[in-house]
Amino acid sequence: MNKVKQEIIDLANYFHNREESFKKISDDLRDLIDKFANQEQLLPLFNYFLSRYGLPESVVKQKIKKRIANAYLYKKALFSRELSQKMVLISFLKYLGVLFYSLFYSQKAEKIRHYKLIIDGIASRLELLRFKKLIDLFGGKDVLVVTSDKEV
Predict the structure, then answer these.
(1) What is the torsional sign of CA 38, 41, 45, 51?
(2) 145 vs 109, which has greater pLDDT?
(3) Which residue has the higher pLDDT, 62 or 108?
(4) Which of 41, 94, 122, 136 has most Cβ atoms within 10 angstroms of its Cβ?
């Protein structure tokens, strides 16, 4: 039995007649988005999200439908350019650019300090004085004192 290959729905060429009623335009647009999300060509995508992240097909379809619906410009009567293949390529190149920039120009911590004693939650100078002998025992450079008060 030969399967008839289903044609991919092209959203880039869709437009509506602005003279028609808003209800009819909205219904046609919803039907188009539903048809797009129900294409057999998207099954590998749904299976990927199911196996990789445990997301059911219905959740992934709903997210796709929402993204497509938000990309439709009613005043211009067409979908925004962000859905075109050209924009996907540009977005990918921007992503790679940011990735390389962050890899090469990020600052690395030069020195990691290790402390022998950490004293946390010092609220007053008097409380800090109670720990003075202990701090002197470990050495001032090997002790970290954490306080929320700048005056301490």
Answers:
(1) positive
(2) 145
(3) 62
(4) 122
